[in-house]
Amino acid sequence: MTSNTVVTHRPAAPAAGPAATAGAAAGTVARLIRAELRLALREPLVLAFVFAFPVVTVLVIAGAFTAEDAPDFGGFDPAHWYVSSYLAVIIAAVGLVMVPVHVAAYRERGVLRRFAAAGFPRWSFAAASIAVGVLLTLVGSAVMLAVAAPLYGLPPVDSPVLTVLAVLVGAVTFTSIGLLIGSLVPNARAAQGIGLLAFFPSFLLGGGGPPPSVMSAGMRRAADLLPLSHVTQSIRDPWLGTGTGSGHLAIALAFLAVSALGWWRAVRL
Amino acid sequence: MTDPIVQVRGLRKRYGDRTVVDGVDLDVHEGEIVGLLGANGAGKTTTVECLQGLRRADGGSIRVLGLDPAVDGTRLRSLIGSQQQDSALPDRMRVAEAIELFRGPRSAAVDGLLTAFGLAGHRRTPFSALSGGQRQRLFLVLALLNRPHLVVLDELTQGLDPAARRDVWDAIRALRDGGATTLLVTHYMEEAEALCDRVVVMRNGRVVDSGAPSELVDRNAPWATVRFSWSDDDVRGWTGLPGVADVRRIGDTVEVNGDRTMVAYVAADLVQRGRVPTDLAVLMPDLEAALISLLTSGGTR
């Protein structure tokens, strides 16, 4: 730039009326979703964890059991039981590992303050994060099912509407929990530690590890306290036809409400 | 003069038991570059955060562009172009992507802005690969992108080397020449003197003086020094001249200190003696000297 450059500056007329304001907010969220998706796709380690970890672990654990173990899995083929459970593992990977680090890093670097100062509505980043969380969950699920299908076959879906609803509620709930963790921790490194600390017990007790029938009473009680257990069962029950999963869905929604209230009221996103 | 774009009266803000802004008044008129000056912790950033509605004031009144930031914060911020202290972009975000993200429906011509700020060749460069000066220029582009009615720049040149700082100054001058109203928060006096039409000086949350930089210098540092080589021992001739406070000899150099009128009398005396030194220098205090004098005197407006 030279000292005789002139940047002609004509202030824009303000947007008029609530419709224009609502349109601008919708545009902001759409742009944030695009940007966040692009950035997520440039994080190879995070992508590997979200997409590869559930696929590898479901292949290992589903292959570790045979049809003779079916009684421990409520009479279902263990591979089918795990395939229907592992969508929740992807949900947990997104919500407990990816989102907290992302939010904490944005807070640490002042990116969220930049969004606020640019007039982005307060809820817009959370809305975009949830949209991206759901999209990545759906893509991760598709990848896992595509890999598992030729090896183990996919269990028939007893209630597709309830199953899809449970996946969507689970993804939104865990992204919201991730937003809360990322909003409370001091920095991205702490978010990574706490996220992994929350992820692995959830993974092992909440659907990705041994079936509840082989767990001790204490482990089952601990599993019942974990949000992921309820998300897993809210998906698996309507999928395998062992129930509607509505009770677990209600508990997942309660976790969603509490976590959303947490980051909305207590924390400036 | 028309009503100010920014009108702050009696602004107060506390963090716990600590009062960080204590009764600040501030006006910014259309087309002005106003500098908010003070040491770290003086309350400058909190003040501009309150007037953007990013923090809620504990007392006083704020009107910015006719809006109350506490009530219409989101709408107000869409009319302000803001560069915040210590706020970055994601490392992997490219220049063009940042522009796409922050670009509203009423934006300025992007190509023109990128060219004006020397970033036209960096559209695909990730934020992490930009130099410090390029990052600050990108922040300026983003601040101007949606044709704001007010530009708020908080410590825009902090951490830059002198060359990069001057590069950013050129950018702000270009902005001023284009007619933008700007509130510039800085603790670099040289920056304020180079860029601002008016400065407001804060200390411990209060405004201690305000005015054009030259007015602050006149008010708080009304002295001057004349320095020249002089081999004769007798320097007493100048002590009696009007305005002279003291005369010092340092080796072969003489320094005459006093008020500004003294300069004319000393120069006239040298001419009269027929010995005008070739290294004659007149040293005038700058804004930094004025502010040091002001801030160490304990004065309040």
Could you please describe the fold and organization of this structure?
The complex is a heterodimer of chains A (269) and B (301). Chain A has 269 residues and is mostly helical. Chain A has one domain (25-266). Chain A is 74% helix and 0% strand. Chain A is elongated and about 75 Å long. Chain A starts with 16 loop residues before the first helix and ends with a helix. With 301 residues, chain B is α/β, with parallel strands linked by helices. Chain B is built from 10 helices and 13 strands. In chain B, the strands form 3 sheets. A 6-stranded mixed β-sheet of chain B has the order 5-6-7-3-8-9, sandwiched between helices. Chain B is globular, with a radius of gyration of 23 Å. The mean pLDDT of chain B is 89. The A-B interface holds A 1-3, 5-15, 21, 23-24, 27, 31-32, 34-35, 38-39, 42-43, 105-106, 109-111, 113-114, 116-119, 121-122 and B 52, 54, 74-80, 82, 84, 86-90, 92-93, 97, 100-108, 112-113, 116-118, 137, 142, 144, 146-149, 167, 170-171, 173-175, 177-180.
Summarize the structure.
The complex is a heterodimer of chains A (269) and B (301). By secondary structure, chain A is mostly helical.
Features:
heterodimer; A: 269 residues; mainly alpha; 11 helices; 0% strand; elongated; B: 301 residues; alpha/beta; Rossmann fold; Alpha-Beta Plaits; 2 domains; six-stranded mixed beta sheet; four-stranded antiparallel beta sheet; 13 strands; globular
Ordered list of secondary-structure elements with their pairings:
The complex is a heterodimer of chains A (269) and B (301).
Chain A (H helix, E strand, L loop, with lengths): L16 H25 L2 H21 L13 H8 L1 H22 L2 H7 L6 H29 L7 H25 L3 H18 L11 H9 L1 H14 L5 H21 L3
Helix pairs in contact in A: 1-6, 2-3, 2-4, 2-6, 4-6, 4-7, 4-8, 4-10, 6-7, 7-10, 7-11, 10-11
Chain B lengths: L5 E10 L2 E11 L4 E5 L6 H8 L7 E6 L8 H5 L2 E4 L11 H8 L7 H7 L15 H13 L5 E5 L7 H16 L4 E5 L2 H7 L2 E6 L2 E6 L1 H8 L2 E7 L14 E7 L2 E7 L1 H13 L7 E3 L3 H11 L4
